[in-house]
């Protein structure tokens, strides 16, 4: 699954720089996560870094975007290859 940021977000700006895939950006009202780039930090870290630094715990799993660990790893490999190219 990709992660999502709920409307409990206080726009504290700590999650965006922690994302190794640059999946987090400012939305119209609060930060958002691009599910096409979110790997839950699979391939980079043991745990999602945005969840680790979020002071209000507003970054749950996105139930609308279900992915297995294998799918997340494949996405990580694709994103890494795209960056290297």
- Proper CATH architecture: 2-Layer Sandwich
Mean pLDDT: 95
Strand line-up across the major sheet: 1-2
Largest sheet: 2 strands, antiparallel
The shape is globular
Radius of gyration: 12 Å
Estimated structural class = alpha+beta
Which regions contain 5 or more consecutive residues with pLDDT less than 50?
Answer: none
Quantity of strands, as a count: 2
Can you tell me the number of structural domains? 1
Highest-level CATH class: Alpha Beta
Q: What is the count of DSSP helices, taking H or I runs of 4+ residues?
A: 2
Distance between the termini: 26 Å
Query: How much strand?
Result: 5-15%
Portion of residues within helices: 10-25%
**Sequence of secondary-structure elements:** EEHH
């Amino acid at each position: 699954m990709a992660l999502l940021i709920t409307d409990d977000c206080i726009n504290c700006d700590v999650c965006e720089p922690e994302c190794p895939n640059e999946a987090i950006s400012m939305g119209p009202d609060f930060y958002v996560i691009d599910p096409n780039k979110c790997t839950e930090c699979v391939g980079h870290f043991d745990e999602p870094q945005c969840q680790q630094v979020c002071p209000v715990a507003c970054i749950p799993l996105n139930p609308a975007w279900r992915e297995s660990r294998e799918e997340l790893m494949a996405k990580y490999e694709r994103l890494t290859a795209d960056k290297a190219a």
